[in-house]
Amino acid sequence: MAKETTAAAVPTKDRLLKALTGNLGTYLIVVAFFVIIEAMIAGKSITSAFQGQLVPICVYVSAALSLNLVVGVSGELSLGHAGFMSVGAFSGAILSSVLMDAVPDPALRLLLCIITGGIFGAIFGAIVGVPVMRLSGDYLAIVTLAFGEIIKNLLNNLYVGHDAAGLHFSMTDTTSLGMTNGTVVVNGPQGAVGITKISTFVAGTLLVLFTLFVVLNLMKSRSGRAIMAVRDNKIAAEAVGINVTKYRLMAFVVAAALAGMAGALYAMNFSSVVPSRFDYNTSILILVYVVLGGIGSMRGSVIAAAILTVLPETLRFMADYRMLIYAVVLIAVMVLPNIPAVASLMEKVKEAMPWNKRTTAEEGGAQ
Amino acid sequence: MGMQFTRRNFLQGTAVAVSAIALAGCGNSNDGSGASSDADSGTVSGDTSGDAFKLGGIGPLTGGAAIYGTACKYGAQVAVDELNAAGGAQLELNFQDDEHNPEKSVNAYNTLKDWGMQVLIGTTTTGPCVSVSKEANADNIFEITPSASSTDVIGGQPDTDGNITEQRKGNVFQMCFTDPNQGTASAEYIKDKNLGTKIAVIYNNSDAYSKGIYIKFKAEAAKLGLDIVSETSFTDDSATDFKTQLNDAKDKGADLVFLPIYYQPASLILKQAKDMGYAPKFFGVDGMDGILGLEGFDTSLAEGVMLLTPFVATADDEKTKKFVEEYKKVSGSDENPNQFAADAYDCVCVVKQALENAECTPDMSASDICDKLVAAITAPDFKYSGLTGEDMTWTDSGEVTKTPKGMIIQSGQYQPLD
Amino acid sequence: MDFLTNLINGISLGSIYAIIALGYTMVYGIAKMLNFAHGDVIMVGGYICFMTLNALGLNPLIGILAAVVGCTLLGICIERIAYKPLRQSPSLTVLITAIGVSYLLQNLALLIWGANPKVFPSVVGGSGPIMLFDGQLVISMETIVTIVVCAVIMVALVLFTSKTKMGKAMRACSEDPGAARLMGINVDTTISTTFAIGSGLAAIAGVLMMSAYPSLVPTTGSMPGIKAFTAAVFGGIGSIPGAVLGGVLLGIIEVFAKAYIGTQFADAIVFAVLIVVLLIKPSGLLGKYVPEKV
Hints:
heterotrimer, A: mainly alpha, ABC transporter involved in vitamin B12 uptake, BtuC, 17 helices, disordered C terminus, C: mainly alpha, two-stranded antiparallel sheet, 2 strands, transmembrane helix (chain C), ABC_transp_permease (chain C), transmembrane (chain C), membrane (chain C), transport (chain C)
């Protein structure tokens, strides 16, 4: 107790450790990763396979962070999060094609696309969020799943093109777009086509840092505390006068906007993007990253999303057994820590770690 | 609370272990043309001595579309084994899984690049192929796909209003018919042979292949004066119950149902039509091939089904018989190969022939090989006769010119429709 | 006539969703867990039956029995290895583990049976469809059998949970596991039994689904699992009649949407109807609204 009130008595080493294990540490991990990778790229010691995954890693990290805002901070199970990524991806792709001549600089165009993705993500987040906030628990989960599937079905039927006369939309086919000598941007089940790849690892890292910034600051702010109060005990929060619906909706819309931005970054990394890419399987995939990293732990989301994106690829040498191993690892990571024998073994290992030993000794000394 | 921390530590431990593996994999770097990394070779077959041309293959080996990827993998392998045994420049094949997912497909492509791939046979399915072909185009690696039939794969094909979706990617070629060509050819066939007066179409609205064929079919049918009375669709998520669609066709009096879909949903449609006592003529496209090979399928249901296909596994000619035999050995099962396997086989053979014509050697860079192959394959005197067509030629557009064969299923066998 | 045909088709599709939803709702109601692997247990049931019928050429009834026994054993194994250690964990953890089990089953099936679709021989035997009104209305044998089996199972489950000791124990566990334990009920065994029954039901659902739509691949169980989960929630999760009602209604809505509105947007419409209903009645059609007590 005395340790916490007298700042001077706290050793700088401990303070540094505390800062590093806090939010600052998370930012540092992202920046460190970026620096290491850039060094590897410069030194040409990086495989094409890994280099090609850098942007997807950033996308999934951002998506996981945004979902953690809904699941961890707001305490709701959302199974349709990929739908917001989808909306962001398609709106970003359309904008990129339309602005191809007006904004030739790829970095600037990418920024505009990401912002557009965020805006559309937020709009759909509000459309979905308003009815959904009336529900809770598994009913909310099902409704978010339903919305995700509706978005996918609608996008499968969407045709968008532009020519000299402007933008054209259709829900049937390209001919009914009524254009001549134009460019088809969204081609129904073929999705967004002809995308020029403008996403970069730099942009991805910046998006991750931005997402972290938004989420972490939201958590620390008054609104964030209100959201967490609602999560922990809805009735008590209501009794204290917190507007439950407003704060739950806020978390949901912010998360949807961030997911939309991640989606736009994703779309600009591939020359085509199909609506079925963002179905409930993808929503569940991101949910797995969030749970594995620790619900509510932003650093956990960053690490888990990055590793689990790369893991299936590193297992390629296992050929036929790759997905099987992945499934077994997933189950093991969830189940093993809960088996008493394994748990006590790990406790012993944890206590044996040098940094843990040192702290307990010093704590004993300072008392 | 205690449990939570323990899992996080467990996860951190796993994280360290996995990062170690991943970085070890990254450490095996590659500057483009020579060094191969063993950790990344998935299913490598053929001559691995290092003196061979490196052929990469990509297709779905797991997931919902696994039938097609595995067919391409085994078909290509049969070709590689056969050509290597015959002597001359040796080939080495490395086939990677893409789970019918464009993102994983690009990952597979990059993995193959690290391995030192010089020519790409793939990808099997359209969606991933559009993304991968863009990458191959940027890296100037020659690509020939056995079965990705959308025009977005080769690019540069405007629709009837002159609208373009993709620019032409000069390094990409197709062994299969393009979707528009199949749609047009089907309409022409139906009109020529007077196969039906009132036509119904059931297509897959979530599949670019199916929708692409349907749209072109509809346009051509309008030109030829064919009467389409019913147009219904389904999606991958609801590909089991077709009674509503069949009812619509039946009520509108359709005597021919056009099915630009794959054989798995087609098998269900045939059964459900029979159950409801509806017996129109059925016309399919190359996706219908494989229906007779379905384990346990009652082939009497397919009696009278007509389709356009480039390959028939039960044909009598020597080439086909030999291929079927070798395929069964390589795949380790008794099931006949479908046209995907045959297309992959032909792809490898065409590449070999073009490599020889262009006088390429295994020590050349992928980009040099690409330029030479493109010139060789589009040369006016280049033609190849294989399992899926006679005297096939290619033009700058990337499309193949070959004649579709019309077949009809009778007594559980394909018979020529002519 | 069209209306009747579509109605019959809807009921036939819906009754399959209903049987799957019954398994979901049982497990959720009692163990409070969303078993995402349920759809894949169905797929395994289908494969076991297929192997018995095709490879060994045995009687369909033996095939069904083999599937039920196989799936029940599988369910018990999964529960013991993957779910039991997580009894005290938050429900999200169990959900993710269930997803892992789902991937595991799909990939094992792919390795064992391969990717090529298997055509399932109908267990309903050779009798043809019933034709009414001069052939204008067709009802297949599979439909009738499915509807009958669904009704029988529903009645059996309701009787089981209300009359038998084990059934009452299940209801007690679902209401308040702590109190149940104090009453001397072995909660662990009860939950394990629930899983076993749920998996057995999945096997029957698998066999019937495959008889109606005879095309089996390792990913066959995935979408029906999601749709049945939707149906279970729609009808009120935890309620046995609710699952049946939800399943049948979902099937009818799906067919009607395809027939009267358009096949292109059918999926979107089905889910939209679901959302509208849940907004009006947030706990599902037959679900109990449990007020949160402070």
